[in-house]
Design goal:
The chain has 342 residues and is mainly α. Helix content is 66%, strand content 0%. It is globular, with a radius of gyration of 20 Å.
Amino acid sequence: MSTDHAPLKHLMPGWFAIVMGWSGLALAWHRATPALGDMAAGISLVAGAFALLVFALLAAALLLRWQRHHDAMLEDLQHPVRHAFFAAIPISALLLITLGVAHFGPGVPGLGALWLIASVAQFAVTLWVLSRWLRATAAAGTAAWNWGGITPALFIPIVGNVLAPLAGIPLGYGAWAAAQFGLGLLFWPVVMVLVFVRFGQAGMLPERLLPTLFIFVAPPAVIGVAALQFGAPALLAWMLWGMALFLALWAATLTRRITDQPFGIPHWGMSFPLAALAVLSLRLSDTPEGRWLAVPSLALLALASLVMLGLTLATLRGLRAGTLLVPEGPPVIPIKPQPSAA
């Protein structure tokens, strides 16, 4: 087989979105345990075990890719869109650790150390992703933004930081978790504004990236859950839930165009955000003013589960048919600013 067509060469970091999706779904089912009992806890354990298995397989494959296709890895690191997906690796680790704390408690030996490593790695990846903006500005001037490279994928490193309190607080790292949470709060609106400006400057995303519009849902949903973890008023979580719900419905208006696209890893961009919205909905349904949300939150959990199963089956079909782990389609075209009039 030619190295250009070797599947391993095209195993991009975006594949860790599968781990994020299944981990998020496992946390959602765990959150449903008070309403559904031991069945929900069992489903959560199975989903979490599957996520852990996929994480281990992808981590091993990524190390092998680094050895055999070093240039392909460097290309991903320099790519205007794909570089942000490297944040999915420490995020996946944080989610799996959060799931471990949820099921087995914070007293499991080594869990705190693993969380600290994953948290610092997430902080470092965020710094690296966002420092590219400064390097580009220094090299080419403030007008030389590559708007074609500004996509919802930039939310991924942001989400990783607001995830920190979910396990960090019970593990005893509340101060560092709060600091990392603040980083996410700072850059969430910044990235949102940049993406909307990108729509104005470069137009809508390429069709194959449309599923990533659901990533808009993740920051407010996760921030809402984390805020409650810090003891914030439920009113704040309701505000964030409203944002997340609207953004989910907003992205859903493109469902037909998304499903008409040939299946690809960008479709996994729908998975974790829907699971995160289900977690926040289930959490709010436990509040006195949120009892009306009990049935809708379970319906949302069912929807997220069906989407996850559909994405998994589509991934297996794509691997069997050879339509995944192949070279990408046309690249995102950099949008260069027009020269200003003298």
